Amino acid sequence: VTGTIITYVLPERKRGQGISYFSLSTIVALAFGPYLGMTMIRFTTYEMMFLFCVAMGVVSFGCVTLLSFTEETAAPDPEAKDIPYLALSSYLDSRVYAFGVYMAIVGTAYGGIQSFMAKYAEGLNMESAASYFFLIYAAVVFISRPYTGKIFDTLGENRVIYPATASLAAGLA
Q: What is the DSSP secondary structure assignment for residue 10, as one 8-state letter?
């Protein structure tokens, strides 16, 4: 939801760059989280890791309760259709099927790496080296994201997506 909101509030001429910077927050979670987890595996038990995650959840919940929210109302969109909540069309839109399939493939590929990296590295006795995969990934993304956002804005999304997909395929191979 947050990503969708971001695309609406960014000016169109800077949308690619804005999305690139915003998505760096996701990269922090997807890179540093597994790095921290793989590092903790070497020094603690799964029970301690679970307790750490519970503690972080409690701290996060506490932080959320400190936020203040304001209720803003907007005029209803005169062109909006009244679609019932239980209708399948409320949740699926045929215009995004291709993108959804693409993201499912990419997510499954990266999720597979993320899920099985710890066990694979353990089998090779390379736990410490494998945890650096995620740090290197984060560094490459932090360096490349601002540039890909500018390319997106000036040359279009296809100039970013196709090379990124090819790079992902080559990396997975």
A: S
Please state, in angstroms and rounded to a whole number, the distance separating the CA atoms of residues 130 and 84: 48
| Residue-wise pLDDT tens digits, 77-128 | 556 566 666 777 777 778 888 888 988 988 888 788 777 877 888 888 887 7
Nearest partner of 25 among 9, 41, 3, judged by Cα: 3
Q: Report pLDDT for 72.
A: 55
Tell me 77's DSSP state. Answer: P
pLDDT given at position 69: 63
Q: Is the pLDDT of residue 71 over 70?
A: no
DSSP letters for 100-146 = HHHHHHHHHHHHHHHHHHHHHHHHTT-HHHHHHHHHHHHHHHHHHHH
Contacts 24+ apart (CB under 8 A), 35-41: 35/131, 35/132, 35/134, 35/135, 35/138, 37/118, 38/117, 38/118, 38/121, 38/127, 38/130, 38/131, 38/134, 39/131, 41/118, 41/122, 41/127
